[in-house]
Automatic annotation (TrEMBL):
<dbReference type="Pfam" id="PF00364">
    <property type="entry name" value="Biotin_lipoyl"/>
</dbReference>
<dbReference type="GO" id="GO:0004075">
    <property type="term" value="F:biotin carboxylase activity"/>
</dbReference>
<dbReference type="GO" id="GO:0046872">
    <property type="term" value="F:metal ion binding"/>
</dbReference>
<dbReference type="Pfam" id="PF02786">
    <property type="entry name" value="CPSase_L_D2"/>
</dbReference>
<dbReference type="InterPro" id="IPR005479">
    <property type="entry name" value="CPAse_ATP-bd"/>
</dbReference>
<dbReference type="Pfam" id="PF00289">
    <property type="entry name" value="Biotin_carb_N"/>
</dbReference>
<keyword id="KW-0092">Biotin</keyword>
<keyword id="KW-0067">ATP-binding</keyword>
<dbReference type="InterPro" id="IPR011764">
    <property type="entry name" value="Biotin_carboxylation_dom"/>
</dbReference>
<feature type="region of interest" description="Disordered">
    <location>
        <begin position="501"/>
        <end position="521"/>
    </location>
</feature>
<dbReference type="InterPro" id="IPR001882">
    <property type="entry name" value="Biotin_BS"/>
</dbReference>
<dbReference type="InterPro" id="IPR011053">
    <property type="entry name" value="Single_hybrid_motif"/>
</dbReference>
<feature type="domain" description="Biotin carboxylation">
    <location>
        <begin position="1"/>
        <end position="446"/>
    </location>
</feature>
<dbReference type="InterPro" id="IPR000089">
    <property type="entry name" value="Biotin_lipoyl"/>
</dbReference>
<dbReference type="InterPro" id="IPR011054">
    <property type="entry name" value="Rudment_hybrid_motif"/>
</dbReference>
<dbReference type="InterPro" id="IPR011761">
    <property type="entry name" value="ATP-grasp"/>
</dbReference>
<protein>
    <recommendedName>
        <fullName>biotin carboxylase</fullName>
        <ecNumber>6.3.4.14</ecNumber>
    </recommendedName>
</protein>
Length: 597
């Protein structure tokens, strides 16, 4: 068994892995970016090493540096967690070449399942049912139009071949929407996975998203741990997960479990992985395989009593699985709510920032996997997850009541999260009836009712307020405590001398802003902090209400900003590639008559 393992990740999953390492008597090594130097996963580990700047490409995605740290620390293996390099075949190969064990599947399995087109072709050859569509990349928009019309029909889903986690997934309900979907999926694939190729699938309008947890070792043992239902999603990214799936009976469980085992065997899989699929009208279709531990693995752990992370570590070390298929019994019901720093009332806009008071729920059947604490910061540099709240009880109705109790106990000060959304949705008849709740999640009027109370309006003097803040800095690997006196943080990011918003002028004082920032007002303000990825209009252009104006990238998500009214763009205050703060002006749109005056 390993004596020391490096965890190549951050936040709650890094802490989750470290807990199991501690129980197994294995020393843990953390890595961190400059912005994460005081993060809880750094404090939790036995050792911690700086990787580089906050930008993931220069820290958590920097393969040579992570390998270097592993060698320097004496780590014999690397656990990638999920996200970042978890499904990167080049990283797995780099570990092998360096004589370091990659805790996950072989690079060949990642390659096979990493490309969705290759995976679909492989699964089809193995007799696994797939969603009807292409098994090869679609090269051009013109090809997409032909295939959609002649072979698949509308609505059609356009997916990045290397995508995942909701990235690179667009839907065209009709042919006139296909061009935007094709280009959007390709753009996201290139941005997040350096692969702009896409393929087409039949779009299933209201399926249940059901996935199967599998475990495999190097001795030929492959088992499944039952299924999870992850149907409650926004923008094809999961919000609530549960196990077992309410629409799956014993016969269907055995059927999709076999599909999961067959899929894993087809690629000589090792470790923990997940077969994702769509269930509709009694038919189950293979969707993709995630060659890593899933965010929602916790609900399966709660219903089976099996430590999935531990089994993955044992498999990587060459040990056999500690359980057989006959040992797997699902007991009770588990639900997980992703507590993200997002504002559901603003179409789930990311809401990064500093955390004030913080108190996690507890009591019977309650588990919290978190990566933050009091005074922590949810940075716009990474995903918006604060924590995962998981509960278990004897059945689904009891687990729902327990989750509502736990949500009520959760205290997160000074940060907007999805707690109000989860509380509202779990209290609906749709949830009680085990529906997908898709119409609720997409109902903007229902979401707007979940708006947070407006903060007290600051006075002009507040803009001149100075605060004293303590920081830890590193110089040549040595830490120093320093104190900085300056403006208070804006949206979780300290604005110092020379810093500015997207318009180059920095945050405005209250008196400098135009009145009526909503409901028919002329000025459109940014609902979130992020980076201006794309600007699709020009000053002087006439736009319709609801027309797409720009796309803001924040916390690994693209957020489309539309016109709040029809009119002429009198002022356009943003530029592509520049940062933008929450509340900063995007544009001034005036009705045509007003614009002429």
């Amino acid at each position: 068994m390993f004596a020391k393992v490096l965890v190549a990740n951050r936040g709650e999953i890094a802490i989750r892995v470290m807990r199991t390492l501690e129980e197994m008597g294995i020393a843990s090594v953390a890595v961190y970016s400059e912005i994460d130097r005081d993060a809880l996963h750094v404090q939790r580990a036995d050792e911690a090493y700086l990787l580089g700047p906050a930008v993931a490409a220069e820290s958590y995605l920097k393969i040579p540096k992570i390998i270097e740290v592993a060698k320097e620390s004496g780590a014999e293996a690397i656990h990638p967690g999920y996200g970042f390099l978890a499904e990167n075949a080049d990283f797995a190969r780099a570990c092998d070449e360096a004589g370091i064990v990659f805790i996950g599947p072989p690079a060949s399995a990642i390659d096979a399942m990493g490309s969705k087109t290759k995976a679909r072709e492989l699964m089809q050859a193995a007799g696994v049912p797939i969603v009807p569509g292409t098994t090869e990349a679609v090269a051009t928009y013109e090809d997409a139009v032909r295939i959609a019309n002649d072979e698949i029909g509308f609505p059609v889903a356009v997916k990045a071949a290397s995508g995942g986690g909701g990235k690179g997934f667009r839907v065209a309900l009709t042919e006139d929407k296909l061009k935007d979907a094709f280009e959007g999926a390709s753009r996201e694939g290139e941005k997040f996975f350096s692969d702009g190729t896409v393929y087409l699938e039949r779009y299933l309008p209201d399926p249940r998203h059901v996935e199967v947890q599998v475990l495999a070792d190097r001795h030929g043992n492959v088992i499944h741990l039952g299924e999870r239902d992850c149907s409650v999603q926004r923008r094809h990214q999961k919000l609530i997960e549960e196990s077992p799936a309410p629409a799956v009976d014993e016969a269907m469980r055995a059927r999709i479990g076999k599909i999961g085992v067959d899929a894993a065997r087809a690629v000589d899989y090792v470790g923990a992985g997940t077969i994702e699929g769509m269930l509709q009208d009694g038919e189950y279709f293979f969707l993709e395989m995630n060659t890593r531990v899933q965010v929602e693995h916790c609900v399966t752990e709660m219903t089976t009593g099996i430590d999935i992370v531990r089994e993955g570590i044992l498999a990587a070390a060459g040990e056999p699985l500690t359980v057989t298929q006959d040992d797997v019994v699902l007991r009770g019901h588990a639900i997980e709510c992703r507590i993200n720093a997002e504002d559901a009332s603003k179409n789930f806009a990311p809401a990064p920032g500093a955390i004030g008071g913080y108190k996690e729920p507890s009591g019977p059947g309650v588990r919290v996997d978190s990566g933050v604490g009091p005074g922590g910061v949810v940075s716009p540099m990474y995903d918006p997850m604060v924590a995962k709240l998981i509960v278990w009880d004897k059945d689904r109705a009891s687990a729902t009541r327990r989750m509502l109790r736990a949500l009520g106990e959760y205290e997160i000060g000074d940060l907007k999260t999805l707690i109000p959304f989860h509380t509202a949705l779990l209290a609906t008849d749709q949830w009680a009836n085990a529906e997908t709740c898709r119409d609720l999640v997409e109902d903007k009027d229902w979401l707007k009712a979940l708006a947070f109370p407006a903060p007290a309006a600051p006075s002009d003097d507040d803009a001149e307020e100075k605060v004293e803040q303590a920081y830890t800095v590193e110089v040549s690997g040595r830490r120093f405590d320093v104190t900085v006196i300056g403006p208070p943080p804006v949206g979780g990011v300290v604005v110092g001398a020379g810093a500015a918003g997207a318009n180059g002028a920095g945050p405005k004082k209250r008196g400098e802003r135009k009145k009526g920032a909503g409901g028919g007002a002329d000025e459109l303000l940014s609902p979130l902090q992020g980076n201006m990825w794309k600007v699709l209009v020009e000053q002087g252009q006439t736009v319709e209400e609801g027309q797409l104006l720009c796309i803001i990238e924040a916390m690994k998500m693209e957020n489309e900003i539309t016109a709040h009214k029809a009119g002429v763009i009198e002022t356009l205050s943003v530029k592509e590639g520049e940062p933008i703060q929450s509340g900063a002006p995007i544009a001034v749109i005036k009705a045509p008559a007003a614009a002429e005056e």
